[in-house]
Amino acid sequence: MMAHIMNLTRWEWYKLRRRWLPWIMLGLLLVVSQLFVWVSYFFNRTEQSRDVYDNFTLPGSIPNALGLAYSIGIFLIVILTASVLGTEYRWRTLRSIIARGTGRWQYLASKIMLLGLLAGGALLIVVAVTAVSSLIAGALAGGAPAGSSASARWLDVPIAFGKAWFAFLPYIALAAFFTVLTTSTAAGMAISLVYYYAESIVAAIFLNLFTWFETAASYMLGRNATAWMTSGDDSPVISFPMGGRFGTFPSALHAFLVLMVYILALGGLALWLFRRRDLTGN
Q1: 184-205 confidence digits (pLDDT tens)
Q2: What would the pLDDT profile of 82-132 be if each residue is shown by its tens digit?
Q3: What is the distance between the alpha carbons of residues 175 and 79, in angstroms, rounded to a whole number?
Q4: What's the rounded Cα separation, in Å, for the pair 124 and 85?
Q5: Degrees to nearest 5, angle at CA 159 with 60 and 66
Q6: Which pLDDT score is estimated for 143?
Q7: pTM of the predicted model over 0.85
Q8: For residues 202 and 32, what is the distance between their CA atoms, to the nearest angstrom?
Q9: Cis omega (within 30 of 0) for bond into 250
């Protein structure tokens, strides 16, 4: 069964790689993720600081780039998920695909698996490009300025990668659920992004008005994603403006468990709907 899903995943990748959308998104992700490296480099030229130097040289540059990639990557992964899942509805090709003997849940699972693998692959490319750009920036900057350093350790690199990759998964599940629910790329994309913004706005308003709302906010998707990404760092370099830095955030364990519930619940609902509903779309 797993071999069948993997074969379907490879076939989905073969179809997707021929489209411009994933490559444009990857280029945008790389451009945005490298901003921190080069902005820090140019800032260091005007006012040299050991902390700034550590931000654009290895290994500290990689967690910073991954954090910035995550902040823009949420939007990209939502758009890509809605596009990958909604295209077959728009082209009205689902009936013919399923009629060939492809199981419904295996078909949808292969698409979701592909999206998870693409998110991980994109982050690995960000790591590789950041390493190269950091070596170039470090060579141009010369030696490190004098002063104490609280630079990242190499151990922080796989930790930052794992955090960013896992934090993408609930948003893949969110976009997958709304796309299957509406059988529309545009609707799935729009509802997911509106939910993302609306949740942040509601949390910001109610946390400033009512102290009791902090308990409810601790189970919101965006708040837990932000808590997960910033756990273990009292002063994160990357700001998550829509996640909000107000109120008390949940612990890393709490955030992990809540995000896992979102992944399983939304992914399970998407699979359940896909198996039961008529294969038509808008």
Answers
A1: 999 999 999 999 999 999 998 9
A2: 999 998 887 777 777 777 777 888 999 999 999 999 999 999 999 999 999
A3: 8
A4: 24
A5: 55
A6: 82
A7: yes
A8: 28
A9: no
Distance CA 8, CA 95 (A): 16
Which of 132, 134, 119 shows the shortest CA–CA distance to 29? 119
Statement: residue 234 has pLDDT above 90 = no
Q: pLDDT, tens digit, for every residue of 22-36? A: 999 999 999 999 998
Task: Give pLDDT tens digits for 167-187.
Answer: 999 999 999 999 999 999 999
Burial group, residue 178, by CB count within 10 angstroms (0-12, 13-18, 19+): buried
Residue with tokens 């708040």: 223
Three-state SS string over the chain comes to CHHHHHHHHHHHHHHHCCCCHHHHHHHHHHHHHHHHHHHHHHHHHHCCCHHHHHHHCCCCHHHHHHHHHHHHHHHHHHHHHHHHHHHHHHHCCHHHHHHCCCCHHHHHHHHHHHHHHHHHHHHHHHHHHHHHHHHHHHHHHCCCCCCCCCCCCCCHHHHHHHHHHHHHHHHHHHHHHHHHHHCCHHHHHHHHHHHHHHHHHHHHHHHHHCCCHHHHHCCCHHHHHHHHHHCCCCCCCCCCCCCCCCCCCCCHHHHHHHHHHHHHHHHHHHHHHHHHCCCCCC
Site of tokens 């090709």: 93
21, 268, 158, 151 alpha-carbon torsion, rounded to 10°: 90
Report the amino acid identity of residue 110: S
